[in-house]
């Protein structure tokens, strides 16, 4: 099989720009999702305010976060094959991949938590939602250091 390294040619910086545009949309949406869920927890199930949050959260998911996650993965994997990031001596990339997999899992967890609240469930406290809401920020700090500094 011929090597895929360099297959993007002059398109590489454009693909990188597209990658970063959708990274910003995805992370911005992940910051908002548990916040919206916390606000919804303060409403009475079935009230107009409750239904308004169900709608806001559904639109955030459908229009912003899920499509952005898919595009971040597609563009990111294109870049990874172009530079041969899966090879030896690319510790930063393997670590980044582990973190983005965890962030994708977090995405699924946050959607699940929002669905329970949409179904009328109200957790005893929003503490765990508020703690979980720190994850995208921490992941962003670690991922950006890994890709920019490439410490290993
Ligand atoms: C979802 C799977 C992802 C994959 C497969 C992936 C892969 C890649 C690859 C291979 C590069 C090129 C690195 C280089 O040219 O040196 C890159 C660039 C970058 N990625 Fe990702 N990425 C993903 C998600 C993310 C996320 C979630 C973030 C931020 C939170 C992120 C932030 C960045 C940044 C800041 C760059 C630019 C690095 C530079 O210019 O050197 N990526 N990504």
From TrEMBL:
Identify the cofactor(s): heme b
Q: Which top EC class is named for this enzyme in its record?
A: oxidoreductase
What is the name attached to this protein's record? Protoporphyrinogen IX oxidase
Organism, as annotated:
Sphingomonas oryzagri
Major subcellular site: membrane
Q: What is the lineage of its organism?
A: Bacteria, Pseudomonadati, Pseudomonadota, Alphaproteobacteria, Sphingomonadales
Write down the chemical reaction(s) this protein catalyses.
Answer: protoporphyrinogen IX + 3 A = protoporphyrin IX + 3 AH2
The protein's job, in short, is: Catalyzes the oxidation of protoporphyrinogen IX to protoporphyrin IX.
Pathway(s) where this gene product acts:
Porphyrin-containing compound metabolism; protoporphyrin-IX biosynthesis; protoporphyrin-IX from protoporphyrinogen-IX: step 1/1
Q: What EC number(s) are associated with this protein in UniProt?
A: 1.3.99.-
Question: Could you describe the subunit structure of this protein?
Answer: Homodimer.
How many cofactor units bind, and how? Binds 1 heme b (iron(II)-protoporphyrin IX) group per subunit.
From the record, give the transmembrane residue ranges. 12-33, 63-86, 92-111, 131-149
